[in-house]
Target: Potassium-transporting ATPase KdpC subunit
Amino acid sequence: MKKHILPALKLTFFSLLVLTVLYPLMLWAVAQMSPNQGKGVLIGEGIQKYYKQIGQAFNTDEYFWSRPSVVDYDAAGSGASNLSTTNPEYLKTVQERIDHFMAHNPGINKADIPADLVTASGSGLDPHLSVKAVEIQVKRVAKERQLPETEVAELVSKHVEQPLWGMFGPKKINVLELNMALDKMSKEKGSNNE
Model:
């Protein structure tokens, strides 16, 4: 028994050192090299500031909708439903989201709706949508804002983020940044029409 205690204590001490000191220090050092030193990137005007990396609830027709969130975009606790894709409750929720989307976007075929518009992300805080998930909403947003579809589509194309280093991950769009630019565009168009 004594011959096992010393190696166990050494392993425990080594694990504590690595996991509670070295690893957090390494993450802190990497964060110091990122924008805003790992504190998150704030965007917005005046006193209205939002974290760019945390999804926001956009669910009215004049905005591009966000990816659904099981935690209502509450950054205090991220999470998912953990229901399997064959769970009847999960399937019912997804079907309700599909029906809601189709009711607000007439003329869209069910098969054309991207999965990220009707399924929540693993964290519930995903600020991005696929390019297709945003483009499929252009017609509705343009109509609600009384803007030409071509101008709204051009705004969308300006907000496409390329994959990391040009090869890791898909192209995506930050919905918060896009909707803020959309508000700015609408404001400028409104002031030009006065």
In short: The chain has a mean pLDDT of 87. Residues 58 and 65 are 5 Å apart (CA to CA). The chain has two domains: 1-39, 40-193.
